[in-house]
Design goal:
Number of domains: 1
Oligomer: single chain
Helix content: 40-55%
Distance between the termini: 23 Å
Strand content: 15-25%
Low-confidence stretches: none
């Protein structure tokens, strides 16, 4: 961790590096990058307001990793696991075409409330994804559907260097590496466990 920089500043700088990402996926797949998309200015305002509210300090935190952001959820807003209504209440900023994933956000808020509320939870934990950018797959009907990094071995191989670099960069924010919490007990957990052993 750069002691002179707050956790918030490091997260926002990391997001800025994601905005420069030019990784190309094979035909039938695409990366969803909220940091350089059509709503990047709104995303920048939301992420800045959110992270400065909860991470404007140099305190170490533990890492919680999901797999990949949903294409109409966190992949659009830039704040992992947060739903539209809560983000709008937190920041006063609305993002168009954002669909709430009630099961993910509902579970998160249950955990946060049990822990003592947002201030307490976010002062101890930082949440993101193994693959911090969303992935969409074009299905047989020509529609975009969510795709996790582990669903296609070719996609996973292409993303692997980016995933490793992203995790390393985030650890440098001041992450307590004694433990990492994984959302998902299946393929996401298996992938992270194997990565950790290497």
């Amino acid at each position: 961790m750069k002691k002179s920089q707050t956790f918030a500043k490091q997260i926002l700088q990391f997001n800025k590096t994601l905005s420069l990402n030019t990784l190309a996926l094979p035909a039938g797949f695409k990366l969803i990058n909220p940091y350089n998309g059509n709503q990047k200015d709104q995303v920048n305002k939301i992420t800045t307001a959110f992270y400065q509210k909860y991470y404007n300090d140099t305190k170490p935190r533990r890492l919680i990793l999901g797999s990949s952001p949903a294409r109409q959820g966190s992949a659009v807003t830039g704040v992992p696991f947060e739903d539209a209504k809560h983000l709008q209440n937190e920041t006063g900023i609305f993002i168009d075409k954002f669909h709430i994933n009630k099961s993910s956000s509902g579970f998160l808020y249950d955990v946060i409330n049990e822990y003592g509320g947002c201030q307490q939870f976010y002062s101890d934990f930082y949440m993101n994804f193994v693959c911090p950018l969303g992935i969409a797959k074009i299905n047989a009907n020509g529609k975009e559907v969510n795709c996790n990094y582990y669903e296609n071995k070719k996609i996973q191989a292409i993303l692997l260097p980016f995933i490793i670099e992203s995790i390393r960069n985030q650890i440098n924010f001041g992450i307590d590496t004694s433990i990492c919490y994984c959302i998902g007990s299946g393929e996401n957990y298996a992938f992270l466990s194997k990565l950790n052993e290497q």
